[in-house]
Write a structure and sequence with these properties.
Layout (H helix, E strand, L loop, with lengths): L5 H10 L7 E6 L2 H12 L3 E6 L8 H10 L3 E7 L1 E2 L4 E2 L2 H9 L4 E5 L11 H4 L3 E3 L24
Parallel strand pairs: 1-2, 1-3, 3-6, 6-7
Antiparallel strand pairs: 4-5
Helix pairs in contact: 1-2, 3-4
């Protein structure tokens, strides 16, 4: 649980896995997705930005290609539900892609905290932050970011 906004939880999931000079793949598919790129710039992380047409999810094959072309990438960051455009990115499939590499999968699951199916441990995502909402058990405005187990751990 963080004493911060949802963006604060995004930042925590970012800076706890990446350092200045690292490379990360960031999915920019709306206003929240743009924040991953801004965090990369703020912390000196080299961002490989995958721009999606707003309202369309990222294709897992595009992320897989970006990881192949950037084997030094230490993370993939995506908004699970880009609420500014209403699109859900395929987190389960992205977790399967990143599980085959050394990269972590970090995300923010905004509306998914309301009870939609996001099984971090089963899907091998590394960290998925979520702001507390009226439907969650946490006080509104109290984001949480449970680290998940990696495959094989």
């Amino acid at each position: 649980m963080f004493a911060a906004s949802g963006t604060g939880a995004m930042e925590a999931s970012f800076v706890n896995f990446l350092r200045k000079g690292d490379t990360a793949v960031v999915v920019d598919g709306g206003k929240f997705g743009e924040r991953w790129g801004k965090l990369a710039k703020a912390y000196g992380v080299n961002a490989v930005t995958l721009k999606c047409e707003w309202g369309h999810p990222v294709e897992p094959a595009v992320v897989e290609k970006a990881l192949r072309e950037n084997p030094q990438a230490k993370g993939v960051y995506v908004q699970a539900n880009e609420s500014s455009t209403g699109v859900y990115h395929p987190i389960r499939e992205l977790a399967q892609v990143t599980a085959r590499t050394g990269a972590v999968l970090g995300g923010r699951r905004h509306q998914r905290a309301r009870g939609d199916d996001v099984a971090d441990d089963d899907w091998a995502s590394t960290c998925c932050s979520a702001p507390a909402t009226r439907r969650s058990v946490f006080r509104r405005g109290s984001p949480f970011s449970p680290p998940a187990r990696r495959h094989g751990s």
